[in-house]
Design goal:
Helices cover 46% and strands 15% of the residues. It contains ten helices and eight strands. An eight-stranded parallel barrel has the order 1-2-3-4-5-6-7-8, surrounded by four helices. Helix 3 crosses helix 4, helix 4 packs parallel to helix 5 and helix 9 crosses helix 10. The chain is globular, with a radius of gyration of 18 Å.
Length: 285
């Protein structure tokens, strides 16, 4: 029998008043599922960092733990120290620590700041704050797109765990075997923190294919061809996507994954339906 894992959600900070209202409505819907926490992203170089923190504060005010994404590219120790103090004062107890993407136009000759890798950021947070924060890090079952090799990527992941990461959230994936193999390989390196699968619902074909190609996630050929075959048939794409992702989540649950982290894209309907199918709705929890 499948276990009932914890669930959590990722949002991104809205850029308009309309987007803010839609996100607030989606949050209210999803809170019924009793998430362990909600994470909030920000863009390359911290381009939406203030919007991220505004959204984090709103979630905290609604009584739900919130975890800001926190990248270190271009940052100094003093700026990271200041931000940690701000997090602490606002009631943040969980951080998603990332290296971060290079901002647009960032030249090769420019300084990367005082942190080159996410493991450096994790080590600094631990040195500055001890066990105050639960530190999430990223994991890439199918290899980070900028990694030199799968082995190098695993070593980089293990370095984050050794630096003090509490747990990890994976990039989206559609092949459960890639997740299982990643966890086994990480354990073999001594990196034994919980690895929570990151789940991306399928709501449109072009968007999911474009995003997967950009982040290095493999879409199995049969899924890609089915999505392309549906063309603009939104209802069929959504129905097929629900079947595919529900089956993926159910297979992951059979091995007792520690949680499921849903990339909501600031929408609630598909995630609510997935959780209903999986028996993760409020009544079951």
């Amino acid at each position: 029998m499948s276990s009932i894992p914890s669930i959590s959600f990722e949002f991104f900070p809205p850029k308009t008043a309309e987007g803010e209202a839609k996100l607030a409505s989606a949050r209210r819907d999803l809170y019924a599922l009793r998430p362990e926490f909600c994470s909030v992203t920000y863009g390359a170089g911290g381009s939406t960092q203030e919007g991220t923190f505004q959204t984090v504060r709103a979630i905290l005010a609604e009584g739900v733990p919130a975890a800001p994404h926190f990248s270190c590219i271009g940052a100094s120790r003093s700026s990271i120290r200041d931000k940690l103090a701000q997090f602490s004062a606002s009631g943040v107890r969980r951080i998603v620590a990332l290296r971060g993407d290079l901002p647009s136009g960032f030249g090769g000759g420019a300084s990367l700041g005082e942190f080159r890798y996410a493991s450096d950021l994790v080590a600094f947070i631990r040195a500055e704050t001890g066990s105050q924060f639960h530190i999430e890090v990223g994991a890439y079952p199918e290899m980070h797109p900028q990694a030199r090799s799968p082995q190098a990527d695993l070593q980089a992941y293990a370095a984050k765990v050794q630096a003090g990461a509490s747990s990890a959230i994976t990039q989206m994936f559609f092949n459960a075997d890639a997740y299982f193999r990643f966890v086994d390989d990480a354990h073999a390196l001594g990196a034994r923190v919980p690895v929570v699968p990151g789940i991306m619902p399928i709501t449109n074909s072009s968007g999911i294919i474009r995003f997967a190609d950009a982040c290095g996630a493999d879409i199995p050929r049969w899924i890609r061809l089915r999505l392309q075959g549906y063309g603009d048939d939104v209802a069929s794409i959504r129905s097929f996507g629900l079947d595919v992702i529900a089956a993926l989540c159910e297979r992951l649950r059979t091995v007792g994954v520690p949680g499921l982290h849903f990339y909501t894209m600031n929408q609630s309907a598909t995630v609510l339906e997935l959780c209903r199918r999986l028996g993760l709705d409020a009544a079951a929890r």
